User: Fold this.
Amino acid sequence: MYFTWHVCMMILTQVEVDVVVVTVVVELVDVVVVVVEVVVEVVVVVVVVVVVVVVVVVIVVVVVVVVVVVVVVVVVEVVVVVVVVVVVVVVVVVVVVVVVVVVVVVKYCKCRSNS
Assistant:
């Protein structure tokens, strides 16, 4: 009887040890699953942040390019307008000077011919 009892106790002790080992393994698997979930969440957050930063940089670059193009176009238009105005003013002044000189020469010539 003692032998049977001792064998039963050994078997029960082994079963308890097996249950503890299985419990520890299950807990370790749970920890690994939690770590993998956290790593996946961190990777997703990093990917989202990188995508947002890239999109913001692209938007900023496009806006800067558009602003530079608009400024260059406006400056070129202003320069063209100023050049046209200066040319027109110079032509008008030259025409006026030529007309005045012609009128003065004609009057001088008439005056000389009359005298």
